[in-house]
Specification:
This protein is mostly helical and about 60 residues long. It has one helix at about 30-60.
């Protein structure tokens, strides 16, 4: 039987990526930082994809 991983600070179950989602936990600040960086990277990759798609469309014309 596999046990759910728990936060070493508050004992709350960790999410599928191993981050604590308990807003009252001291480690939650680290989770928020991770989420902000992930959102920033996905926004940058979306912008880069859109730029390359529009460049390819322009070249095709």
């Amino acid at each position: 039987m596999a046990f759910a991983k728990r936060c070493p600070f508050c004992g709350h179950k960790l999410d599928s990526e191993g981050w604590c989602r308990n807003e009252k936990c001291a480690d939650y600040i680290r989770t928020q930082t991770h989420d902000a960086e992930a959102a920033k990277k996905s926004a940058e990759s979306d912008t880069a994809t859109a730029d390359s798609s529009s460049a390819a469309t322009t070249e095709a014309k």
